[in-house]
């Protein structure tokens, strides 16, 4: 779900700058690779027309993957090469939309593996960009946790294999706040004392979604009345919101200038590893549950190597290593079993079933509703 | 060159001076630009400071205007010391060398600039600006911008801009330097007319000796930071005090020579080549005879041909070496048996043509040969 | 060409006439070709593309494009978007004004008052901050302005009340002014340095005090520089959403961020994003045209 995720909070989050570049890159790549605006728009479905299946399985010993920064490292790649003899080249992106724009514009033809987030899988498969996975070529798919056996974003994992997941919640310093924070109530109840002391993720669906859940609605509500109600509810705590940032709150929270930050679990866990006095919670009213997956685009030049990669990542040892390294949750039950107890019992990584039950994945909504969300967001951030 | 400054103002204590410079010194970064200048400029005078570039004449003008403060000495305007008086408080206005018109203002606004600063009432401002522009014949172009004007027109605007303020003294820094010859002659005439009609003191800096001679009531000739001579154009031309002036203003035949003893009014000088010339020494030499001199004879004072007059002390036979025909007059170069080459200017009264190689006689009177300090 | 060889017949005796004509025809192509191609590819073409996109209401990546129309432009007039545009203009104009007010004295001093051998050093010193990323600078301001930051520590030390500027408009102005001040100073310096000092002398000669000279001569004479610097800062600040977003808090939506959201946000409404871009491009072009016209009249 997160449009931007950066597990390394210590480096001054470069996301905004990168976004800046992304715009330029997306704009230019879009321009260079298509003939006119209409073709550009059409290219989305037209991506399928540029198939190069002929090249697949031709014994090409290179695999190009397009993934989030940090999701691969040299050790992983060299292990894979030792095992399969396939050389992996990994390119990274930091927002699903950037990745989509590139793939749609035809710039993703070199990639045999891509790591879209849940809602993006839905969107990409809807546009016919993803190949149906051949179950017979996959081992260990049955080891996935129940919640990921048949996810809402991709029925029966037809196009995608879940790789990692996390939640969205609140991080704060209990010693400073001196109250028991269990969820969003705390902010609505203490708005006046929190003036410009909380931050929220810079994402319309996360912020309005959390409010919808707080109001008892679905995070994926498509009822304009409910969305409006959530917007108005949010306005009540606007004075408490210092800013909408996905990263960049860390130092100020640790330094006590901020009381509470809404954050992705992965960012929160990374920070807590350094500042153990901080606490992360999934709000009582529930939160978003996001999954990053692995898919094989229809244009994959080397699907054989892609399957090899999927199988390699499904292996419990490799999936477990990912958890240890990225401090991120795995949907692989067998991998969970291999984790040290300390990680297994980490509720931030693996919330209880009761908490998980209240978590929902964000799924794409219809255009009009999406526009509505965006307009409320624009209003919220400009009033 | 020795310090032979002839101060002709000394006696005129009752005359009102508009500008006085007293022992003015100016040092820039350790280099002396102006040394010890004394200068008195009379009311209503057209005064020129003439000299080659780098002689300190512009610095002198800028000290009068107030753009530079003298390192030593004093500048007075109408008897008032100008020490620590900024330019905008001095009763002088400058016409700049490159006119320095304000490009973002119309001609009218340029001329009105000074009056507006003085909060001149509107009706008076209109009248005075109009008059000034009329005076320089620019009234029809008042709405134009400087970039739309020719050099001569800009010059006129610069003049109007200075004159409209009715300054005590108008300072002109090489005012005609950027104009072509014909326009310059025309503007020279207009400058004299303006000066005569307005009766304001003009102080002009120029390196053009002809301009200085034709326009000025008096001229100060400057060289390497010093004033060498102050006098009327005739004095400066006819009785230069130094060889520099004789050479810088007009043309001259300059020959180093040694003086014999005075015989009556005249004295015989012998050049290094052995040529003997009868010279009429100036008063200074009578009192303080120096033997080493430079003999200066203006080329136009020398006649070609023979003469019987006993007044003429200097007569020589020679050979015509070069003839340069210049329309209204001709330049001749005559080589004397001593090897000296003498330049002679003759107006072309007859169409008689002299050819190089012809033997020729030249003569001039003793009073036309000046003995100048080395 | 004609200046260096006034008589082409003498300079190139062996070349027949038709070859010379060909050469004359080819010369602009050769000289302008590369940059022309560059401009065409990276400026003209993308702009046309955006123009076309802006005329397809609700154009979205992946949707079959609908019929042409001006719906996207009508959409902009919704109060919610007008407010964003107004806020951006407010940020941009305010920053431009602050840059001008702070930059002019600095440029004036460096160009006209500082010893000439120090000028380059002073300029370099002044543009030194440009060598770091603007993001880093914004984060530095967060460190300074945050409630427990350097500013409030200093104010506290002197017994002054702390200021809550971070995440509010003052922080946006501080951060953006800091970011764009060097550009303003550079442009103003270039303009002031060219200022003909004889004009100042002339003004002084005509009775103007230093202050009067400044307002009646220096400022009008450097107006093209002021306009150019102002326009540059205005355009740059209109396009900057990083600094407002980092420093401006919860209400810092700007036009450029809005455009970004339309292209790469959740709605991916490329049509609306394009129409807002076109309005922005149009606005900027008009200002530049005005500047050129204004600047021309002032050229001396």
TrEMBL record, chain A:
Its main location: periplasm. The keyword Nucleotide-binding does not apply. GO terms for molecular function: polyamine binding. Keywords: Periplasm, Signal, Transport. The keyword RNA-binding does not apply. It is found in: Periplasm. InterPro entries: SBP (IPR006059), Sperm_putr-bd (IPR001188), TAT_signal (IPR006311). GO terms for cellular component: periplasmic space. Pfam families: SBP_bac_8. Spermidine binds at residues 119, 203-206. GO terms for biological process: polyamine transport. It comes from the Bacteria. This is Spermidine/putrescine ABC transporter substrate-binding protein. It comes from Pegethrix bostrychoides GSE-TBD4-15B.
From TrEMBL, chain B:
Belongs to the ABC transporter superfamily. Spermidine/putrescine importer (TC 3.A.1.11.1) family. It is found in: Cell inner membrane. Keywords: ATP-binding, Cell membrane, Membrane, Nucleotide-binding, Translocase, Transport. Its EC number is 7.6.2.11. The keyword Mitochondrion does not apply. This is Spermidine/putrescine import ATP-binding protein PotA. The keyword Membrane applies. Part of the ABC transporter complex PotABCD involved in spermidine/putrescine import. Responsible for energy coupling to the transport system. Its main location: membrane. One of its GO terms (molecular function) is ABC-type putrescine transporter activity. Pfam families: ABC_tran, TOBE_2. It catalyses: ATP + H2O + polyamine-[polyamine-binding protein]Side 1 = ADP + phosphate + polyamineSide 2 + [polyamine-binding protein]Side 1. Residues 19-249 form the ABC transporter domain.
TrEMBL record, chain C:
It is a multi-pass membrane protein. Residues 85-291 form the ABC transmembrane type-1 domain. GO terms for biological process: transmembrane transport. It is found in: Cell membrane. The keyword Transmembrane helix applies. It comes from Pegethrix bostrychoides GSE-TBD4-15B. Pfam families: BPD_transp_1. One of its GO terms (cellular component) is plasma membrane. Keywords: Cell membrane, Membrane, Transmembrane, Transmembrane helix, Transport. This is ABC transporter permease. Coiled coil: none annotated. The chain crosses the membrane at residues 29-51, 89-109, 121-142, 171-192, 270-292. It comes from the Bacteria. Belongs to the binding-protein-dependent transport system permease family. CysTW subfamily.
């Amino acid at each position: 779900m997160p449009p931007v995720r950066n597990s390394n909070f210590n480096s001054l989050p470069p996301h905004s700058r990168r976004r800046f570049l992304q715009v330029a890159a997306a704009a230019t790549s879009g321009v260079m690779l298509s003939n006119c605006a209409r073709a550009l728009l059409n290219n989305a479905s037209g991506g399928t027309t540029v198939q190069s299946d002929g090249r697949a399985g031709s014994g090409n010993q290179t695999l190009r993957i397009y993934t989030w920064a940090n999701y691969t490292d040299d050790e992983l790649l060299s292990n894979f090469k030792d095992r399969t003899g396939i050389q992996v080249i990994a390119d990274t992106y930091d927002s699903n939309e950037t990745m989509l724009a590139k793939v749609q514009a035809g710039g993703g033809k070199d990639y045999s593996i891509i790591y879209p987030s849940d809602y993006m899988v839905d969107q990409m498969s809807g546009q016919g960009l993803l190949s149906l996975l051949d179950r017979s070529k996959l081992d260990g798919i049955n080891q996935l946790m129940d919640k990921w056996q048949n996810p809402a974003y991709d029925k029966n994992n037809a196009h995608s294999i879940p790789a990692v997941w996390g939640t969205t919640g609140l991080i704060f310093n209990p010693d400073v706040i001196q109250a028991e924070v269990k969820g969003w109530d705390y902010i609505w109840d203490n708005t006046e004392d929190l003036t410009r002391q909380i931050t929220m993720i810079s994402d319309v669906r996360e912020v309005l979604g959390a409010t919808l859940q707080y109001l008892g609605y679905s995070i994926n509500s498509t009822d304009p009345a409910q969305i409006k109600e959530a917007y108005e509810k949010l306005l009540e705590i606007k004075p408490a919101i210092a800013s909408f940032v996905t990263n960049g709150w860390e130092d100020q929270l640790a330094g006590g200038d901020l009381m509470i930050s809404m954050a992705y679990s992965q960012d929160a866990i990374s920070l807590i590893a350094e500042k153990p006095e901080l606490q992360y919670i999934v709000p009582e009213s529930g939160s978003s549950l996001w999954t990053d997956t692995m898919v094989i685009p229809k244009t994959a030049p080397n699907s054989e190597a892609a399957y090899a990669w999927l199988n390699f990542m499904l292996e419990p040892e490799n999936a477990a290593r990912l958890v240890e390294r990225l401090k991120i949750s795995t949907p692989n039950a067998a991998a969970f079993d291999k984790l040290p107890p300390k990680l297994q019992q980490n509720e931030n990584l693996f919330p209880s079933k009761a908490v998980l039950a209240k978590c929902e994945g964000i799924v794409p909504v219809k255009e009009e509703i999406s526009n509505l969300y965006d307009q409320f967001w624009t209003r919220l951030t400009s009033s | 060159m020795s310090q032979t400054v002839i101060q002709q103002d000394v006696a005129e204590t009752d005359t009102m001076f508009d500008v006085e410079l007293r022992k003015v010194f100016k040092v820039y970064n350790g280099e002396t630009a102006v040394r010890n200048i004394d200068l008195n400029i009379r009311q209503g005078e057209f005064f020129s400071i003439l000299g080659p570039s780098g002689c300190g004449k512009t610095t002198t003008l800028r000290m009068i205007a107030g753009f530079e403060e003298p390192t030593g000495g004093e500048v007075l305007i109408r008897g008032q010391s100008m020490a620590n008086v900024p330019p905008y408080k001095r009763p002088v206005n400058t016409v700049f060398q490159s006119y320095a018109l304000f490009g973002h203002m119309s001609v009218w606004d340029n001329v009105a600039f000074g009056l507006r600063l003085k909060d001149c009432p509107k009706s008076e401002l209109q009248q005075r600006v109009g008059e000034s522009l009329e005076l320089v014949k620019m009234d029809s172009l008042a709405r134009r911008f400087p970039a739309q004007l020719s050099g001569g027109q800009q010059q006129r605007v610069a003049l109007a801009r200075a004159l409209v303020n009715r300054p005590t003294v108008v300072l002109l820094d090489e005012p005609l330097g950027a104009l072509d010859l014909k326009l310059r002659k025309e503007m020279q005439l207009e400058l004299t007319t303006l000066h005569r009609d307005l009766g304001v003191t003009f102080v002009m800096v120029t390196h053009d000796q002809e301009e200085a001679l034709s326009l000025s009531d008096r001229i100060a000739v400057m060289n390497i930071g010093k004033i060498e001579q102050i006098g009327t154009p005739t004095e400066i031309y006819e009785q230069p005090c130094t060889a520099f002036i004789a050479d810088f203003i007009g043309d001259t035949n300059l020959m180093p020579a040694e003086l014999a003893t005075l015989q009556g009014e005249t004295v015989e000088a012998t050049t290094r080549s052995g040529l003997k010339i009868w010279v009429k020494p100036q008063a200074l030499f009578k009192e303080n005879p120096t033997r080493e001199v430079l003999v200066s004879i203006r080329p136009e004072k020398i006649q070609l041909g023979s003469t019987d007059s006993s007044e003429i002390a200097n007569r020589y036979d020679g050979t015509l070496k070069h003839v340069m025909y210049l329309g209204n007059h001709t330049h001749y170069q005559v080589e004397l048996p001593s090897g000296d080459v003498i330049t002679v200017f003759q107006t072309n009264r007859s169409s008689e043509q002299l050819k190089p190689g012809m033997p020729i006689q030249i003569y001039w009177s003793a009073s036309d040969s000046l003995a100048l300090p080395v | 060409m004609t200046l260096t060889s006034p008589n082409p017949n003498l300079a190139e005796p062996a070349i027949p006439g038709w070859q010379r004509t060909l050469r004359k025809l080819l010369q602009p192509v050769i000289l302008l070709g590369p940059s022309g191609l560059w401009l065409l590819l990276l400026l003209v073409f993308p702009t046309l593309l955006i123009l076309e996109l802006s005329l397809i209401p609700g154009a979205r990546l992946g949707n079959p494009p609908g019929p042409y129309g001006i719906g996207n432009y009508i959409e902009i007039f919704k109060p919610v978007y007008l407010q964003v545009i107004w806020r951006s203009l407010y940020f941009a104009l305010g920053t431009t004004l602050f840059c001008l007010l702070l930059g002019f004295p600095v440029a004036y001093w460096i160009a006209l008052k500082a010893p000439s051998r120090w000028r380059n050093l002073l300029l370099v010193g002044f543009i030194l901050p440009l060598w770091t990323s603007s993001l880093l600078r914004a984060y530095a301001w967060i460190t300074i302005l945050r409630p427990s930051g350097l500013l409030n520590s200093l104010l506290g030390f002197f017994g002054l009340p702390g200021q809550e500027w971070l995440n509010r408009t003052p922080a946006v102005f501080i951060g953006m002014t800091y970011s764009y001040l060097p550009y303003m100073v550079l442009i103003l310096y270039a303009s002031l340095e060219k200022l003909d000092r004889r004009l100042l002398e002339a003004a002084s000669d005509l009775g103007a005090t230093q202050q009067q000279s400044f307002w009646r001569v220096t400022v009008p004479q450097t107006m093209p520089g002021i306009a150019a610097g102002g326009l540059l800062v205005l355009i740059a600040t209109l396009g900057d959403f990083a600094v407002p977003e980092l420093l401006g808090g919860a209400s810092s939506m700007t036009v450029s961020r809005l455009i970004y959201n339309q292209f790469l946000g959740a709605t991916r409404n490329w049509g609306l994003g394009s129409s807002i871009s076109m309005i922005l491009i149009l606005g900027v072009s008009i200002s530049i045209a005005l500047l050129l016209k204004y600047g021309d009249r002032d050229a001396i």
